[in-house]
Amino acid sequence: MTVDALTDVAGVRVGHATRTGDGWLTGTTVVLPPEGGAVAAVDVRGGGPGTKETDALDPRNVVQKAEAIVLTGGSAYGLDAATGVMAWLEEQGRGVRVGADPTHVVPVVPAACVFDLGRGGDFRARPDAALGRAAVEAAAASAPGTRVREGGVGAGTGAAVGPMKGGIGSASTVLGSGITVAALVVANAAGSVMDPETGVLYGELFEGRVDYPEAHVHEAARRRLAETAAKNAPPLLNTTLAVVATDADLSKAQAQKLAGTAHDGIARAVRPVHLLNDGDTVFTLATGQRALDAEHPLALNEILAAGADMVTRAIVRAVRAAESVSGPGGEWLSYGELYGGR
Asked: Please, is 279 exposed, middle or buried when counting C-beta atoms within 10 Å of its C-beta (0-12, 13-18, 19+)?
């Protein structure tokens, strides 16, 4: 039984840690692959990324696997969350062995952040090592195949897409070959996820699931968005983050190709995208449980196409799952409140 989420890739778990109230509106999300890690890669296309350990994922470099991926709020300050994840992994003896003693390990924990500073009211309320540890512990404690919580949780807690509320979304598919491809996204874009002329989500236009709102509903939504946008600080620095996972047996180079093509999924759902004030970053994880068809050199193609499709679907689900937020840091209306449960 699948749950249409990143956790449909066997052995992959997701944990959120969320802080709200008293000036907080932020959080951290950890993707935890099976023990021993997974082949990992990254592709960064935003002009203002905040990342950690991404150079280790270059196919030319020695590291082959990552033990966890950290997605976090708090801009560059929030990258401290990865320290808490590393500490927990070290306690489990998980990481690259660097000595004869089996406890002497260095966990490889790539991380990326979104900008949500001050959205809860306190600029200094941002994720730290303790929040990162809470997120990885939540992931480790979850049962295999657990449904991923979506909307304003974890790294999506303070997310915004243009003037609307963003959040976490996830999606998965099983290909005809039996290979699973899935995505988890933090939708926090400077660009819009919605066609300004019709109110339809760009991602749903791509998917062919078009349900146009009535004209009076759309006009009312536009007025409300304009009013709240005028009250909020402009979204100067935003980012869409994604993790695409598969149970296919991929090399680091193949995983990097998957990360690159998965950015197409962001471009279908967000316009404009990959701006200088975005930090758009896609990680990939390949657990290696299913071999590619060696007789077909283009067997990777269906995985590449599916990765992009799942990112688009995950962005739509993030926006659909988001709930409105209003507080001392500003007001962000959800798509659901503006347009109903279409």
From this structure: buried
The angle subtended at Cα 309 by Cα 154 and Cα 37, nearest 5°, is 55
pTM above 0.90, yes or no: yes
Predicted pLDDT of residue 211: 81
pLDDT band at 220 (very low <50, low <70, confident <90, very high): very high
Paired residues of 16 in beta bridges: 29
CA 176 – CA 54 distance, rounded (Å): 32
Q: In sequence order, what are the beta bridge partners of 281?
A: 44, 241
* 248 beta partners: 290
DSSP code of residue 26: E
Q: Which two tokens stand for residue 13?
A: 């778990």
Nearest to 56 by CA among 47, 66, 46: 66
Q: Tokens 């060696």 map to which residue?
A: 294
List CB contacts of 314: < 8 A, sequence separation 6 or more.
169, 170, 171, 183, 184, 185, 242, 265
